[in-house]
Each structure stands twice: as structure tokens, then as C-alpha cells.
Amino acid sequence: MPQAILLREHGGPEVLRVEDIAVAAPGPGEVRIRQTAVGVNFHDCYVRSGLYQTLKLPGIPGLEAAGMVIAVGDSVAGFAPGDRVAYFFAAYGSYASERVIGADRLVKIPNGVNDATAASLMIKGLTALMLVKHVHALGPDDTILVHAAAGGVGLLLSQWAKHLGARVIGTAGSPEKAALAKQAGCEEVILYRSEDFVARVKDLTGGKGVSVAYDSVGKDTFYGSMECLADLGHLVNFGQSSGPIDPMAVSLLSKGSYTLTRPMLFHYCATRPALEAMAAELFAAIADGTLSVAEPATLPLTEAGEAHRRLEARETTGALVLTV
Q1: pLDDT digits (tens, 9 = 90+) for 145-203
Q2: What is the C-alpha radius of gyration for the chain, rounded to an integer number of angstroms?
Q3: What is the model's pLDDT at position 196?
Q4: Is 90 exceeded by the pLDDT of residue 254?
Q5: DSSP assignments along 235-286, one per residue
Q6: Helix axes 152-163, 175-183, angle to 10 degrees
Q7: What is the rounded average pLDDT of the residues 29-57?
């Protein structure tokens, strides 16, 4: 019997419970997938806690997964039973052993990439690509700040930025995480729990500041990130792991003619051609060595609550996936 993590009420990690589910036959344009690996993201924690009330309850959380096609509906072209596939999907539902999904949201997993890695990359890898090439096209003239540089997105973002010639300054919460961030391409890593990251960025840039600050932490770092910008600098907020950002007066941007972006990956991959192009570029970057991707940490699907606890306690580095 297929199983899923059902969210029936908002709360702590303990509200994530395993239940048996029924999975329908795929309709026109749909496929049925037996899932093997499910990506875990901070977004999932926000949905579970109620910070994001974007999943109708009761519902199955989760945005990304990988597995094998086991059935296809009418009018499906390009996919057949036995294909290894991965996806991210804004309508949720990935915390499950099986599901039905539109074929237009799937990409094939290339040889040399295992299911767990693919599941961990659909959001984090495509987000890193979006950040370094689409939100702000990085190059050798850029010095950037990457918060949570040892996190799932941070490690990929730092590698890709360095490959593009940017100078990368990261922040991390421990010496162990700082070491990982340096291996990923950070020239300097600031231990934000014991150092004033704004003062250190100013020191490291000769008082000038950075051209781009990538901030997924939110409340605790947002206004400090703005202080780190050089004139004409770009603040990119793409998460809020420390909590929602306090309202901002737009006039603050005038201090250095700053720009502010709050990108969402779903908008950048909204069409089938855009998704295919970005996925192809991501997998090519892995194949050619631009990105070195560590095996993600794993827990069984039944331990989704523990996965959320570890993520919120900032006990993880890199990616975390649930195996089925």
C-alpha cells in the first residue's frame, strides 16, 4: 500500500505522520511514479509550521523527488515505464512513496547521477543556477557575499560563482562548516556567531562592499546584508530560515542605488522549454566538473519529522533527502 506523510495540522516536526494512501491511475498527460528519494527543504518546514499557508490541509507536503515511471496516461510523449525521472512541483505532494504528476514537470535523470542526488538537486541546484546566471549574471568583476555558504544551496552557489570568476565571501556557523564552504570556493568565510559579518565584509573589500549579497537567512541578516553592498549593489533574498523579514522602507535602497530581488524558482521554470534548458545546464555542470556534488544525507520517509528537526536546528550541511 502506498504511504505518504500527511500534514493535518500546523505545528512542530511531530505533526508529520505516515499514513496509507490511495494513488489513482494517471490521466491524460500524467504519469505515475514510484518514488525512491524525496528532497527536504526549508520551504517544507515553513509549510509545516504554518508560516506559509500554501498547502490546503490535510495535505502532503514536499516539492521535489526522484523515482521511476511505472505507468503513463494518454497523450504522454517522451516518458515510458522504467524511466528514471526527477521533478519539483509547486503544488506539493512529494512526501510519498508513489504519486501521479503531470509529465510536463518531469526531467530524465542522466546516467551517472543517482536518485538521491537528483532529488536533492531539483530545487537547490536549479536555484543556484537561477541565482548566478538569471537573477544576476556573475562574472570576474563581482565580489559576492553568500550567507549559509555550507548549506544545500550555498555550497552549489559558491562553486558556480567561483567558476564564473567571482570572488566569493561566505558566512557559516561553525569552523567545520567554514571548512566546507572554503572547499566549495569561498575565499574567506566569516563565522557569523562570533564575528560582525558587516564589519568583516567591509574589511575584506577595502571598505567598498560587495556587488551582490545572496541572503537565504532572512530576519537575522537582511539589513546587515544591505549594509554590505557596494554602490549599485544587488541584494538577493531567497529564503528566511531565521524568520520573516521586518517591513522595509523602500527609501533605504537609495543609500547606494541598491536593487532588491526576491526570486522564486517556479517563475524561472514556469514553461517546459525553460525547465528543460535549466535542467540540462545543471546536469551538464555536474558532468563537466563545474559542480562537485556530495552525496546527500538520508533518512527514511517515515522520519520526516526528524529531518525537519535537524534542518531547523542547523545541524545539516549540504542536502538532506528522505528515502523510500
Answers
A1: 999 999 989 999 999 999 999 999 999 999 999 999 999 999 999 999 999 999 999 99
A2: 20
A3: 96
A4: yes
A5: EEE---TT-PPPP--GGGGGGTT-EEE---HHHHT-SHHHHHHHHHHHHHHH
A6: 40
A7: 95
Cα separation, 318 vs 279, in Å, equals 19
The predicted pLDDT at position 318 comes to 75
Which residue type does 70 have?
I
| Grid cell listed for 92 | 506539493
The 8 Å CB, 24+ separation contacts for 184-188 are 184/149, 184/150, 184/154, 184/155, 184/156, 184/158, 184/159, 184/292, 185/158, 185/159, 185/161, 186/146, 186/149, 186/158
- Put simply, whether the predicted model's pTM sits higher than 0.90 gets the answer yes
Backbone angles phi, psi at 320, to 5 degrees: -130, 130
Phi-psi region of 153 (alpha: psi -120 to 50; beta: other; left: phi over 0): alpha
The residues with which 184 forms a beta bridge, in sequence order, are none
Average pLDDT, the chain: 95
Question: Are 186 and 146 in contact, with CB atoms under 8 Å apart?
Answer: yes
Q: Fill in the DSSP letter of residue 130.
A: I
Question: Domains, the chain, ranges and CATH?
Answer: 3-122+266-323 (3.90.180.10), 140-262 (3.40.50.720)
Place of cell 525521472: 85
Strands 106-108 and 84-88, bridge-based pairing: antiparallel
The pLDDT of residue 240: 86
pLDDT at 34: 98
Contact 82, 259 (CB under 8 A): no
> Which triple of cell numbers denotes residue 165?
570568476
CA 20 vs CA 4, 6, 33, 97: distances in Å: 6, 9, 16, 10
Q: What cell was used for 163?
A: 567558476
Averaged pLDDT, 306-322: 90
